[in-house]
Design brief:
Elements (H helix, E strand, L loop, with lengths): L7 E6 L7 H14 L3 E5 L4 H4 L1 H4 L2 E3 L2 H4 L21 H13 L4 E6 L1 H10 L6 E6 L15 H22 L2 E6 L6 H9 L4 E3 L9 H18 L4 E6 L6 H13 L4 E4 L11 H19 L5 E6 L2 E6 H6 L6 H18 L1
Parallel strand pairs: 1-2, 1-4, 4-5, 5-10, 6-8, 6-9, 7-8
Antiparallel strand pairs: 2-3, 10-11
Helix pairs in contact: 1-11, 7-8, 8-13
Length: 344
């Protein structure tokens, strides 16, 4: 291992932003300072590596830069998608920048797309590559939670609790669409926590059976309307239904005469101050990333399993999308059945 004084860490945030990314950056900088290591921040994701020379997207991060960011949402290093990292020229330029800046290890905070970029980079650069899972989707394999997930769930629950108030006042039906890309972690956690009458996600809803599912859903809503005078909340995963919650509301109106109000929560789930759980997770993972670098670890993702940090091979983390717990799915199914028996 090279001399501690000469080591230099690069860090960037990539892909969709997640509450807690700033807390993770702060932890990396503070831990690195403990070991007398410089941290070079690259702005706008991998673009900061590829375009560092032309638009000055790299700077040393000082302690003063991270003193007051643990509570801030977003990422002060900014983020972006970077299609050039899918090209040979882009990877070579990224490697060139890392070599020019004398970077010994690169930490990337992001999701599976960001980590695939790390894996592609290992064939062009020989430094240490460390991933910190920062994504509200919570879909990376090998870690119980990802940074930003807890805050996104909390934000969605707060929004739906408010929707429930107005829905109760008018006995309305609401279709609430939450984020998660192609994963139902947010959908199920939010749906159960806010007492939704229905949770529709990839794990319990087949696109191939849309018509039959639509008929079943319509029948259940009508039965509820006839036997229970109150609101009806359906939480649906984005990308599940072509056209989303708005299109599903139109389908229910056209096919069954059911009036639904569609509400797409969208990017409010990415913003806001991270909840304590995300601040703690980000801090633990940021420190663990620096410790992993000092231990000579390479090509790994920092993970949390059973409340303890550990290392997972990057290849394993992105190989499969983490599935929603079957216990969670069963819980929603059983709750729905019991609600129908007791209230209808």
């Amino acid at each position: 291992m090279s001399n501690i004084q000469s080591k230099r860490i690069g860090i960037l945030t990539s892909g969709g932003d997640a509450p807690g990314m700033n807390a993770a950056i702060r932890a990396v900088v503070l831990a690195a300072h403990h070991y007398h290591i410089d941290v070079m921040g690259f702005y706008y994701g991998y673009n900061g590596l590829i375009c560092a020379e032309s638009i000055n997207q790299a700077k040393l991060i000082e302690l003063s830069d991270v003193n007051s960011i643990i509570h801030r949402g977003g990422t002060f290093l900014k983020s972006a998608r970077c299609h050039k990292m899918l090209t040979e020229d882009g990877l070579q330029q990224a490697a060139k920048t890392l070599k020019k800046e004398n970077i010994d290890a690169l930490i990337v905070i992001g999701g599976d797309g960001s980590f695939n970029g790390l894996l592609a980079l290992k064939d062009h650069w020989q430094g240490q590559l460390i991933g910190i899972p920062g994504t509200i989707d919570n879909d990376l394999d090998g870690t119980d939670f990802t940074i930003g997930f807890a805050t996104a769930v909390n934000t969605a629950i707060e929004a739906i609790d408010k929707i429930r108030d107005t829905a109760d006042a008018f006995e309305r039906i609401f279709l609430v669409e939450v984020m998660g890309r192609h994963s139902g972690h947010i959908t199920f956690n939010v749906g159960i926590a806010c007492g939704a009458e229905q949770v529709l996600s990839f794990e319990n809803f087949s696109v191939a059976e849309q018509q039959s599912k639509l008929e079943i859903l319509a029948a259940e809503i009508k039965y509820a309307q006839q036997n229970r005078h109150s609101s009806y909340i359906i939480v649906i995963a984005e990308n599940l239904w072509s056209g989303g919650a708005i299109e599903l509301a139109k389908k229910l109106k056209k096919s069954a005469g059911i009036e639904c109000t569609a509400c797409v929560l969208g990017h409010i789930q990415r913003g806001g101050s991270p909840v304590p759980k995300d601040r703690l997770l980000a801090t633990k993972m940021g420190v663990a990333a620096v410790q992993a670098i000092m231990a000579g670890e390479n090509h790994i993702m920092i993970a949390e399993q059973h409340s303890a940090t550990c290392y997972i091979a990057l290849e394993q983390a992105v190989k499969h999308r983490k599935v929603v717990s079957q216990q969670l799915i069963d819980a929603q199914t059983n709750i729905l059945a019991l609600t129908a028996q007791n209230q209808y």
